[in-house]
Amino acid sequence: MKKDGIQWEIPREASRSRGLRPLVEAPFLRLPRPNLDDNTADLDRLERALAQRGITPLRFDPRTLGEMAGKVREGDFEVCPVVGREGDGWALIDVVPGASPGDVLGFALDCGTSRLAFYLVDLASGKRLAERSVPNPQIPFGEDILSRIVKARRRDGLEALQRCLINACNETTAALLSEQGRSPSDVYAFTVAGNTTMSHFFLGLDPANLCREPYIPVANHFPFYRAADLGLAIHPRALVYVFPNVGAYFGGDLIAGIVACGLHHREDLSMLVDVGTNAEVVLGNRDWLIACAGAAGPALEGGVVERGMMAAPGAIDWIRIDPGSLEPTYRVIGGGKPVGICGSGLIDLVAEMFMAGILTIQGKINTQLRSPRIVELPDGPAYIVAFADETADGMDLAVSEVDIGILLKSKAAMYTILNVITRKVGVSLQDVKHIFIAGTFGNHIDPAMAIRIGMLPDLPLDTYQGVGNTAGEGAAMLLLDRELLEVVEKLRTRITYIELNVNMELMNEFRGATFLPHTDPRLFPSVKIPERALGRGALREEWPRGGP
Amino acid sequence: MKKDGIQWEIPREASRSRGLRPLVEAPFLRLPRPNLDDNTADLDRLERALAQRGITPLRFDPRTLGEMAGKVREGDFEVCPVVGREGDGWALIDVVPGASPGDVLGFALDCGTSRLAFYLVDLASGKRLAERSVPNPQIPFGEDILSRIVKARRRDGLEALQRCLINACNETTAALLSEQGRSPSDVYAFTVAGNTTMSHFFLGLDPANLCREPYIPVANHFPFYRAADLGLAIHPRALVYVFPNVGAYFGGDLIAGIVACGLHHREDLSMLVDVGTNAEVVLGNRDWLIACAGAAGPALEGGVVERGMMAAPGAIDWIRIDPGSLEPTYRVIGGGKPVGICGSGLIDLVAEMFMAGILTIQGKINTQLRSPRIVELPDGPAYIVAFADETADGMDLAVSEVDIGILLKSKAAMYTILNVITRKVGVSLQDVKHIFIAGTFGNHIDPAMAIRIGMLPDLPLDTYQGVGNTAGEGAAMLLLDRELLEVVEKLRTRITYIELNVNMELMNEFRGATFLPHTDPRLFPSVKIPERALGRGALREEWPRGGP
């Protein structure tokens, strides 16, 4: 996982100070052999020994009683029971006869709309053995999640969407295990953090009601599944834990993110911002947490904008523009000629165009300026970042006023959401001491640039931290710290979730935020607006579209 | 169930005073419809409404989340969730859309070595709809349980023994339901009380270690099964509860019996005696319970003895002998000519032969007496109860000295066990205020006769109560009173179980008890020993055989 951009700095005191308390363990037990004075049953004997180690109450899968007792006998009462924390009790997953359980492994999965990220963890040592990210195999069903929900309504559609996810899991986990010389049957735990829709797809639950008012999930929290229930090709009785969601727009990925950033045990007021098609925001400290999510439009992830793309090789992710010559300098992920521009590149571009006076505070391109890069295209004025001979596809890489308008709506939505949530609890943005920015976006974005365009509030730069894949991080942390199960359960019920109600008041606020940096420059004292940026009329305001 | 003989008088204040608290119920819920201000998930909405009725925590079968939420929608949020108490929580068994759940039924099974007794109960009204008893289909594998355990060791033997039990369950429950015009899918609960070996067979658990020292069950308590786990043809997710056992020789049938007699909440010192091949005895009150089991031999159930039979049509179950003429008067179950003699008949016979001076205190037949009924057969002296022309098979119905010797060993074992258990806790038999005698035997036995032969202690006759099928009774009670789950769990761990150690001391005690009524007549002050009963030498003492 790339952790460039802003420094990775997630507190993990919770699990570190207490040592490992993995979700699944397999302690070696030398059970007293039965005799006439101690003739308790085989499984009760095992249960008793585990209870003496605090592993109680123990729950047996009724279909395996005979098999488990057989293994106790096979090991001649020297066994390693494989036990996993399951809610307020323990599940007996298996019994390994003899003094060593072999490997005790777990997988964490960040089940994202675009990508699936897998982490293979050794639960005995706490070591991460391998990780891999693959494209979400549902993409052929629809790039955005709304079209996948529509596909799920077709006959066998939901099954197909689930099956391709599970197949991808089985292929990737098998590859990682094989590379590490490990066996699938030694994987006893699987944790999954995804947004609400992805969690529904993963579990084969109908997402139809997620995308129509009043946006109702099938379930907000899920029982522990066993691998065989879902067709996961690991130990058939491996525990599968899917992070709960708070609502249709607030998924387990964000709960895992809160856990990863330790928001729930910080004294300072902190904020977690997950930027995507929807902006998901959590604000709070160890005493309270409030969350809000709203459509921000896909612009920040590099979607919609004509030459926009994901932060991937070939994408421009950093740009500076010389205010005199109006010539750009840029960086291409992976080097070589650029293919497109990703979210952070777009933010840099708009911020630099604004600072260079190419863009007005209304987001219009100042066509009065003399530069071969400022051109009039069929759909309006544009700025050419790279000429045809400098790009990978031999076509001009231009960003139009229309593209910029889309970005401005996204950034306005983001700023408005941050404002709404702080106002809801009667604090000011200045009271927020840490803002964690999650996602690939968070690793690439330059907060100084985001402040210049008025997307992020004008706070000291060290307030901001990019924290990468917090969903995957949280899911992996839970594998090694079962006490987080309880934390998550409390979080789920503790978080006050505000449904963003797009009304007149909000639209007024949003309108002001579509300007560069804002209609009220007092909100951005650090941004020095260039003289020539004060220009033509504003864009048409319309809140950007999101998805569940 | 026949309740002749001694009056049926089981206290049921527990469930009566509290009203019905059935194991499974299906309350009608009108859930608030979701809206933007109350947009919790479908299943969380159901869970919340159940929690408001105290039904919490709710456990979902992970494989049915989608189906359950679908039914909530199908009922347009007006539903009857079918919930069953499962340990310290509740299982969501099903959701019935609409305002009525239909029937909510349960079966209780007394899973005996010889017979299976089924009770069909309406869990909503508490009414017993039907009951039926069928022979245990395992009998062709072996009349006694030990030979079945041996059969289970063969390839697929255990599966075959389990399968025939389950098949018998499916046939009998289907017949009862069909006669009552009810549907198998409306049966949501199934409770089973059996001895430890039968519970193992029912669940497909290997009983091999039950019959060899140190006599270890696979498990002493069992998780809740679902009907589909066992192939029971009722609702596939119906809860199946198998009463726990305390050890190889102390099964769930006896725990159910304790519950049925209310031994655990009586102030007075009481005793439950279950008479079969093994005599199982529980002594105690609401503060403590001690249990003991020991082989008593099959004589008391009508086995072994040549003309012995179960208490069934054709069996002589009551006999009186005129001390002058030495002529008998008897009663045949169901009327007509006799086929054999059952346990209670045998006890009457021996008691009457003793009182008439036909039997000596050593259990020998006084061949000096002049009577056409006292004869010398190839295997020794005998008493002819019915001549060939009076019997159903046209053969003399004779009981020999050998037969009587077998019965005397059984009765001596029984008396010794009762003595051992009272001595263990430092009380005397005179302190015991109630003695409940379970089983068919208990319904037929005349305690006055049992005292005369020295099988039961010489206590006031109203101390004794025949209580019939307490195992089935307890299993049926649990269907209607889920609080008994906790009672049973406490009982299981509270009962002190004494393994009967057949040593020299015990053998001395046993030897004295093989006499009529005992070598120490002071123990039986109410028994007037006739002069002519003081006769020849004693029988060879050897503790009778039992089975696990």
Automatic annotation (TrEMBL), chains A, B:
What InterPro entries does this protein's entry cite? Corrinoid_activation_enz, Raco-like_middle, Raco-like_middle_sf, RACo_C, RACo_linker
Q: Where is the RACo linker region domain?
A: 17-98
Gene3D superfamilies in the record:
3.10.20.880, Domain of unknown function (DUF4445)
User: Known Pfam families for this protein?
Assistant: RACo_C_ter (PF14574), RACo_linker (PF17650), Raco_middle (PF17651)
Q: Which residues form the RACo C-terminal domain?
A: 269-528
Please list the residue ranges annotated as the RACo-like middle region domain.
105-265
The name of this protein is DUF4445 domain-containing protein
- Species per Swiss-Prot/TrEMBL record: Desulfoglaeba alkanexedens ALDC
